Amino acid sequence: MKTEAVYRETYNKLQDKDYLDSLDDEAKDENGLTERDRYIAELKATAIGEQTYIDVDRRIEAIENNGSEFQDAWVEHGKKVDEFGGSSNEVKYWFLDNPEAHKWARSIWEDKYNPTDWVEPIIRINVDYAKQDDEYDAIETPEERKRYLFPNGVATDYCVARYTRQSYEKDIPDAYRRDYITWFTDLSITEKPEDYPTGIANFEDNWWMLEHRGFHDQVWVGLLNNQAYPIEMRTKDGVQYLIDVEGKPSRTPPTREMGAKYLEYIRISRGDVKYKGLESKGQGADQYRLDNPDLDEWGVVVGIWAKTMSEKRKQLGETPGERAEREAQELIDWFKEEQERLRQEALR
Questions:
Q1: What are the C-alpha distances in Å from 75 to residues 19, 53, 67, 103?
Q2: Domain endpoint, select from 109, 127, 145
């Protein structure tokens, strides 16, 4: 191939340093090319049969480096380099799809094609979603960007790919990668459902973190340095409840089952729904608490109500002496609980 007439003529022109130096190498055209750049590009595009000079030159390079079987691949690789640049994601993508050619290239030019810093999912997403990346980057407002990622409230393939890539960029452990992607792409977790009563906080994210405790501790707090969710569970008088970051009882229900009961209680107490046909929303809410003692007791523990419904009914028949004795005992119990809480805080 080296002895072919057109190849030799073109090769000699490319080696003519005196002539090349005579061409302007400062002023650039609209494509960023100087006069010398254009001359060299034209020479490399010289037709030799059905190929170009640069195609033949790359075949020769492969043959001379013990890669005869990779001639076609090396020509294809070269075209990617010409279009995107030698260190581009597109060229790395090509190597990932052609592992044998990559292995050969590394054996010859180890430093140039060493993939130690390559992360395959990032490379593939960068190439596969380059158009969407450009469109996303051109959007100016957070609201519009969210609509681009979540049309109709559902994550697009690009949205999932974007957070998948981010998980690798942030070195999220493989064991928690799916959780990371789900957290950022499933709006049913992080946004309050439409059927929640107005003025009530979203509990869905907290429950999800409870169900994915490893992700919460190792990634959300440990790796990403976010504030912890109320997911520490405590038990008082057989009642489970959560505590906040200050160690105080949280009004976030400790389970989805308890949460469903609490939300239903809110609807009844506001008169949004009737309970057992009771016209009075107050009577309906009280009866609902009586029928759901687990909710009733939890509400007292976390400070939503002062007393359970059964206690309230019992106290209606107390004598003055019995009431004084009960209130004194309640004060003693509160003091003990406060001492224990302060002791627990000191241990943390």
A1: 28, 11, 12, 16
A2: 109
Between CA 63 and CA 261 the distance in angstroms is: 75
Q: How far apart are the C-alpha atoms of 163 and 153, rounded to whole Å?
A: 16
Q: Which residues are CB-neighbours of 14 under 8 A, at least 6 positions away?
A: 40, 43, 44
Report d(CA 52, CA 60) in Å as an integer.
Answer: 13
pLDDT digits (tens, 9 = 90+) for 139-163: 999 999 999 999 999 999 999 999 9
State the residue range of the domain holding 40: 5-109
Residue 194 lies in a domain: no
pLDDT at 341: 65
Residues of the chain with pLDDT under 50: none
Per-residue b/e over 254-265, b at no fewer than 16 CB within 10 Å?
Answer: bbeebbebbbbb
Burial class (CB within 10 angstroms; exposed 0-12, middle 13-18, buried 19+) of 175: exposed
Q: Quick check: 256 and 207 in contact, CB under 8 A?
A: yes
Residue 61 is assigned to a structural domain of this protein: yes
How many independent structural domains does the chain possess?
2
> CA-to-CA distance for 164 and 48, rounded, in angstroms?
45
Nearest Cα to Cα of residue 248 among 327, 306, 307, 301:
301
**Geometric angle at alpha carbon 336, from 321 and 238, rounded to 5°:** 90
Show the tokens assigned to 177.
Answer: 């990668």
Is 95 part of any domain?
A: yes
